[in-house]
Write a structure and sequence with these properties.
Structural class: alpha/beta
Order of helices and strands: HHHEHHEHHEEH
Strand content: 5-15%
Distance between the termini: 45 Å
Number of helices: 8
Helix content: 40-55%
Number of strands: 4
Strand order of the largest sheet: 1-2-3-4
């Protein structure tokens, strides 16, 4: 017997105290997978070059998951955890991260809240990542350098 979608959503809201619990709920049933994925991907806060690259690659390759993202915050500075794994001395995000972020942004068609924090010496002249996006934002924080790409993106917002 199938539960109504609203019931699954309420259960997910009330028992999901952590992301690991939501991941576990994805394995319970198809109904719970849908509700848990919606909760998992609705709001993403990413930091660290490696983590950003990994999550954005998943979003770029899975349009169904990317469409669940409504709010995205990207903190470009590297975490202490990822510094050891990446041989980056300059603190500059690798091109692979920018490319995966670009492809993910193109897939997040329902995105309404976008925060791009790139400070502390990180390259900010990468507004080309916003080329070809189709979302309509309600709020935007952007530490990217002013450019033709950024101006073009802002002109598409209504």
């Amino acid at each position: 017997m199938a539960l109504p979608p609203d019931a699954c959503g309420l259960i997910v809201q009330n028992v999901a105290d952590s992301r690991s619990t939501l991941v576990s709920l994805c394995t319970v049933s198809k109904q719970f997978k849908i509700a848990a994925e919606r909760a998992l991907y609705n709001t993403l806060e990413l930091s660290g070059h490696q983590r950003i690259t990994q999550v954005c690659t998943v979003l770029a390759r899975n349009p169904r998951l990317a469409m669940l993202v409504v709010a995205l915050s990207v903190h470009g500075e590297d975490d202490d955890d990822t510094e050891e794994e990446e041989p980056e001395d300059s603190g500059e995000p690798p091109f692979e991260m920018w490319q995966s972020l670009c492809f993910a942004l193109r897939r997040t068609t329902r995105l309404r809240f976008l925060n791009l924090y790139f400070q502390d010496g990180a390259q900010t002249d990468k507004a080309w990542i916003l080329h070809g996006v189709t979302f309509q934002l309600r709020t935007l924080h952007c530490d990217l350098t002013w450019s033709e790409h950024l101006a073009g993106f802002l002109s598409t917002l209504t």
